[in-house]
Amino acid sequence: MRFILFSIFIVLICLNGFVLASQQKKAIVTVVLNKESCGSYSAIPISYSTDTPISENTDIPMVAKRLNQQLDKVFGVNCKLSGIEIRGLISDNTLSKVQIATRVLSNRAVLGAPLWLDSRGGLVSEALKIGDLIASKEFRVLVRFNNKCFSSCVFIYAAGIYRTPGGDIGIHRPFSYELSVESISYPEYLKKYEVLTPILKNYFAKYGVSPSVVDDMNVVLSDDIRILSKEDLNSYGLGNENVAAKEFEKAKIIQVCGLDFHNLELKYKLMKEVCSQKMKNEGKVWIEYFKECTAYSEGIFPKYAQQRTTCWQKINVAKSKKYEPK
């Protein structure tokens, strides 16, 4: 019976996907099934669980509950979700879709479930709100190889507690429609920019990103795109590490595990980094030197290895609540 329901469910998703693909002006937000627990690696569109278009007036808890019930019925109550994906242009209902997705993940997410991005941009105001939301839920953000994160998508990318820029990250001056869904005159457009620039700079600074990226964005025509190199990403603070998230993690470790543990962790990591660099220079591959250097460093600092598990268990208890709806 479940196999029949599964087959019907997948067919409906595919049909729904064809409809969504024809409406690329609005982003498709999906929850991604975990293959091990669900028996499928399908991406389920949030809009599948409702007959009416999703908007800012949508009953988000109700739609999330309905999708959870559908997942229970088709894939079982033990079906977990590997993450959320945003594809297409960020529009006036994308935030609502992401809010539904995070609620669905509240009790189904695998550990470290990320947000995948593949978007050429869209409404700036909506992207800023989505960025704040995924930061509050402590999502990692990934842009897969051959995928893109351009324009306003970069605001969401910046908010990830850890970022993986496998695809292209690009900036340009926002289109006029990205500032507002309404038509605006040129003087109004300039006034919006005057107000918007400090808002964007403050937003980026909050997540450890240099506000100078806004100045560099503003001088690139909206018809063009400047693809950021690895050096660009690191210089702007848009590389893998989110400085703000790292500082928060440091404060949390000190608060929960103590300053002595934090200092011990710094020594352990330095020892491991020196060992890894030495083995890299000897031509060893990552899988070889990672294991060897981990064992070597833990041998030098056995107290750290003993305390680490207990410390991170305490921290993960707090982190396990990150998806809970507010």
Number of helices: 14
| Biggest sheet record | 6 strands, mixed
Q: What is the terminal-to-terminal distance?
A: 36 Å
Low-confidence spans: 3-24
Number of strands: 9
- Derived from helix and strand composition plus strand pairing, the structural class reads alpha/beta
CATH topology of the largest domain: 2-enoyl-CoA Hydratase, Chain A, domain 1
What is the gyration radius calculated from CA atoms?
A: 22 Å
In the sheet with the most strands, the strands line up as 2-1-3-4-5-7
The outline comes out as globular
Oligomer: single chain
**Beta content:** 5-15%
Task: Describe this protein's structure.
This protein has 326 residues and is α/β, with parallel strands linked by helices. The chain is 56% helix and 11% strand. It has 2 domains: 2-244, Alpha-Beta Complex (2-enoyl-CoA Hydratase, Chain A, domain 1); 246-319, no CATH class. It has helices at 2-21, 35-38, 60-75, 94-105, 124-136, 153-158, 176-179, 186-206, 212-218, 230-236, 243-257, 259-281, 286-300, 302-319, and strands at 28-33, 43-45, 81-87, 115-118, 141-143, 148-150, 163-165, 168-171, 226-227. The longest helix has 23 residues, at 259-281. The two termini are 36 Å apart.
Task: Name a few traits of the molecule.
disordered N terminus, three-stranded mixed beta sheet, 14 helices, alpha/beta, 2-enoyl-CoA Hydratase, Chain A, domain 1, 326 residues, 2 domains, 56% helix
